[in-house]
Amino acid sequence: MIDLTTWNLSVPTDPTPTEVTTQQIARGYESRFFRREGANVVFWVPVTGSHTSDSVFPRSELRETTTDGEVSNWYYNQGDNELRVTMSVQQVPSKNKIIIGQIHSRSPYTGDGEPLVKLQYHYIPEQQSGRLEALVRNHPDDSASLNVLLLDNVALDQRFNYSLRVTSVGNLGIRVESSDGRANYYRKILSTTWSKQLLYFKAGAYISDNYGNDKEGAKVTVYHLNIAHR
Question: Any residues with CB less than 8 A from the CB of 200 and at least 6 apart, and which?
């Protein structure tokens, strides 16, 4: 069973998104955007879904919290911080991109922030498979991210693992592994500017698409989900 005791959830309800609390999830919350299939969790986000105030795209996405439901933010120098996920992608929108995991950030002074890392599944129709890409920001105020290809030829419905990790000395590590044994690892020493940003993990389905009918969107299944702060 996936441990969801340290997450809340944003789902793209009409007319505005709903934040599902940690306590509501613990009581067994389900909807068409987030449902349980045995020990697994399925996320669905249609392109017609509502979006949060800081985006123009919809999401069905978990956000890290404490066990009492308060949002959880951390400085990387406080420990070794890691998100591990096993999942598969069943459906992509017409623009073919889904953000499936993030290390997000916020300023302790303004509350604003951009992601340090977005892990993206990018489906390539000509290949009938997708690639796993890391969108990595060098500095918190950078407007653009570096796109790092991690793994190619990941088919729809194929399981894969990923981990997003930041150590106490500022080493960023991103690891991906497909069910057929192919793996890749990306390592980067972070700029010290990130040490001043509060960080937190996100996981689920966040799409870069908001055009089409309500049958178009992204569907992903998560089989394992774990956060560690050591």
Answer: 63, 64, 71, 72, 73, 74, 103, 104, 105, 106
101-131 burial: b if 16+ Cβ within 10 Å, else e: bbbbbbeeeeeebbbbbbbbbbbeeeeeebb
The domain segmentation of the chain, as residue ranges, is 7-229
Instruction: Give pLDDT, residue 161.
Output: 98
Q: Looking at the domain 7-229, which fold is it?
A: Jelly Rolls (2.60.120)
At residue 112, the pLDDT reads 87
Nearest C-alpha neighbor of 222 from the set 73, 44, 103: 44
**Residue 58, pLDDT score:** 96
Rounded CA separation 30/80 (Å):
32
d(CA 8, CA 172): 25
Token pair listed for 171: 């080493």
The CA-based diameter of the chain, rounded to the nearest angstrom, is 46
What confidence score (pLDDT) does residue 184 get?
A: 98
155 burial type by CB count under 10 A (0-12 exposed, 13-18 middle, 19+ buried): middle
- 3-class secondary structure, 49: coil
Residue type, 49: G
Hey, what are 118's tokens? 């977005």
What the block records as the tokens of 190 is 């972070």
Q: Which residue has the tokens 């991210």?
A: 145
Task: Decide: 166 and 117 in contact? Cβ < 8 Å.
Answer: no
Low-confidence ranges of the chain (pLDDT < 70): none
For 25, phi and psi rounded to 5 degrees?
-60, -45
